[in-house]
Design a protein that fits this description.
By secondary structure, the chain is mainly alpha-helical. Helices cover 66% and strands 0% of the residues. The two termini are 30 Å apart. The N terminus is likely disordered.
């Protein structure tokens, strides 16, 4: 069972101060079908009158199943040009049972929600991220340690040509071998980590917590689809590089010395165009992993779903993702640089021994791990919350979330069935 009973940091009762008082513990379930014997004409108990006057709250949205048209109408009333209580009346504060307010999100909401995701469940989020980062960092750090050791030997004995050549070979093998192994490990662990963190985020929106084990049990059935998405993305990103490299190698083998200039220029132009190509598809398919985990879609269907959600708001999604990458890259660099410098200097200036190489590798691995431990959950959190924001903006999904939150507040806990709300059949405009 999920740990959704405990209060959140906002208030002792577990509900944010942003939540308006009229939504506290309604006596009847808002999921009861309108017009049933258990409801009055305003969605409450029989004979209960809805509050009147200029400060009357908005009525809760209708049930999230089988009433999509009513959702669309209420969304137009709430967010359209004609508010139900006058053109100058401000909207009431949005419900906030978990890490975000249940309304379309701004940049501050997304960044704040990501930080709250990490703070609300640090054991699962940071613990899993640290394990994944350490596993991916070890091969790279070992390769870098070999490079440092080979460089130190060459500097200490510049006349030893044979030994220097041998060490340079070891350095090249360590550098590129460690990098390739690290990328292969990252392909596996980061894919799994993204799925687990997305599932934790899906419950945290409602104020519930999942342990790492619970999140893994919910995600493990979606692992093949997650790898399918990552594999398709790798093909889309890598194939142009391979094709261009083969073409340039073939041209260079048959080119004269005077042709090398335009080949170099063509390479620079291609790299500039490739950056735009990479960023475009990275933005278009940013929501594929959340669609796999939260909506239960297959790889191709999830990528198609991500493309549709990004359509109409491409530049905003692109800007937030790019800003997030720059922010976490800056912070991760600040954390990584001291360990990288210490490991490099110790490996270069230390004694010629296995212990020196091992210590340099440990320092490099710690630096890489600290940077990645922050990067992985933050990028996954921003991507997941952007996905939720796009659904709220394009599908009136905030009304679905609000209805569920009201029922969960009435019951006093977050049920496991909250995960099913992310299914696209519950969209107000589906």
């Amino acid at each position: 069972m999920s740990d959704g009973h405990g209060p959140t940091p906002e208030t002792p009762s577990g509900w944010s101060a942003e939540q308006p008082p009229p939504y506290s513990a309604p006596p009847a379930s808002p999921w009861t079908a309108p017009g049933s014997p258990h409801q009055g004409p305003h969605g409450g108990p029989p004979h209960q009158q809805a509050p009147q006057g200029p400060h009357a709250p908005y009525p809760p949205p209708p049930p999230y199943q089988q009433h999509g048209q009513q959702y669309g109408q209420q969304y137009a009333q709430h967010y359209g040009q004609q508010p139900p209580y006058g053109p100058h009346m401000p909207h009431p504060p949005a419900l906030r049972p978990g890490i975000i307010p249940l309304r379309p999100l701004g940049l501050g909401d997304i960044l704040d929600g990501t930080i709250k995701l990490i703070r609300s469940n640090p054991k699962a989020v940071l613990g899993l991220s640290a394990i994944a980062a350490l596993i991916a960092a070890v091969p790279l750090a070992v390769g870098q340690a070999f490079v440092i050791d080979a460089t130190r030997v060459a500097l200490d004995d510049p006349t030893g040509a044979a030994e220097a050549q041998l060490n340079s070979v070891y350095g090249v093998i360590g550098q590129y071998g460690g990098t390739l192994i690290s990328y292969a490990v990252q392909f596996v662990v980061v894919t799994l980590l993204t799925g687990v963190l997305t599932r934790i985020l899906g419950r945290a929106v409602f104020g519930g917590n999942l342990s790492a084990g619970e999140a893994w049990r919910l995600v493990k059935g979606r692992v093949p689809a997650l790898f399918g998405v990552v594999g398709l993305m790798a093909v889309i990103m890598i194939v142009p590089l391979i094709v261009f490299t083969l073409i340039m190698v073939a041209l260079a083998l048959n080119a004269s010395a005077s042709d090398l200039g335009w080949l170099f220029g063509a390479t620079i132009l291609f790299l500039i165009l490739y950056v735009g190509y990479y960023l475009f598809f990275r933005t278009r398919f940013a929501f594929a992993s959340p669609a796999v985990v939260l909506e239960g879609r297959g790889p191709i269907d999830a990528m198609r779903r991500s493309w549709q959600l990004v359509t109409g708001d491409f530049w905003r999604v692109f800007g937030i993702l790019l800003l997030t990458t720059l922010l976490v890259g800056l912070v991760a660099g600040i954390l990584t640089v001291p360990f990288t410098m210490a490991g490099t200097l110790f490996g270069m200036l230390g004694a010629d021994s296995i212990a020196t190489t091992v210590l340099a590798a440990v320092l490099l691995a710690l630096g890489t791990m600290l940077g990645s431990m922050l990067t992985y959950p933050f990028e996954a959190g921003v991507s997941g919350l952007l996905y939720a924001d796009r659904r709220m903006r394009s599908e009136a999904f905030d009304l679905v979330l609000q209805t569920a939150a009201i029922e969960q507040q009435r019951q006093g806990w977050v049920h496991d069935s909250a995960d099913e709300l992310w299914h696209p059949s519950n969209s107000a405009r589906s």
